C-alpha cells in the first residue's frame, strides 16, 4: 500500500468540481484516509513548492494557490502515487490526454486543478506538511 498527498486546488474548489474529482479517485479504488479544506498561506506555499520558488512562474503560482481554499487529502491504495499521477495526466491541461482529470477539465498549465506527490520522498514530505499523524485514519474496507 502507498500513500500520496493530493490537493484539489483553488480552481477545482471555485469551479465546484470537488465531488466529481473525488468520485474518480473513489471509483478507482483509492481510500481517502485524511481530508480537510484549508487556506494555503504564502509561507506554506513556499514550503510546498520549495523546488519551484526560484522559477519565473513561482510568483504567479503562489498567487494562484493562495487565492482560495484547497482540499488537502491523503489517498491510500496499491501503487497510489503512480496511479494518481496517471489519473491526473500531463501538467498542462492542454497537453493532458482526454480521459485524464486535467485532460477532461483543464486547459491551463497553472490552473491544472489537482496536485499529487510525484514520488515516495515527496509523498512523505508533503503528507507531513499538511497533516498531523492523528488526522490520518487508515482503514481497510470491510464491506
Ligand atoms: P503541480 O503538480 O502542483 O506542481 C507544480 C505546479 O506549478 C504545477 O502543478 C502547475 O500548477 C505549476 N506550473 C508548473 N509549470 C508551470 C509553468 N511553466 N507555468 C506556470 N505554472 C506552472
CATH architecture term: 2-Layer Sandwich
Instruction: List low-pLDDT spans.
Output: none
Approximate helicity band: 25-40%
* Beginning-to-end CA distance, first to last residue: 19 Å
- CATH topology (level 3) name: Alpha-Beta Plaits
Q: Tell me about the biggest sheet?
A: 4 strands, antiparallel
Class, according to the CATH hierarchy? Alpha Beta
Total separate domains:
1
The pLDDT mean sits at 97
Strand order of the largest sheet: 2-3-1-4
Can you describe this structure?
The chain is α+β, with helices and mostly antiparallel strands and about 140 residues long. The protein has a single domain, classed as Nucleoside diphosphate kinase-like domain (Alpha-Beta Plaits). About 40% of the residues lie in helices and about 20% in strands. The protein has helices at about 10-15, 20-30, 40-50, 60-65, 80-90, 100-105, 120-130, and strands at about 1-10, 30-40, 70-75, 115. It has a four-stranded antiparallel sheet. It is globular and about 45 Å long. Adenosine-3',5'-cyclic-monophosphate binds near residues 52, 61, 109, 110 and 115.
Q: What order do the helices and strands come in, and which of them pair?
A:
Elements: E1 2-8, H1 10-14, H2 18-28, E2 31-38, H3 42-48, H4 58-65, E3 70-77, H5 80-88, H6 101-105, E4 114-116, H7 120-130
Antiparallel strand pairs: 1-3, 1-4, 2-3
The protein binds adenosine-3',5'-cyclic-monophosphate.
Adenosine-3',5'-cyclic-monophosphate (CMP) is lined by residues 52, 57, 61, 91, 109-110, 112, 115.
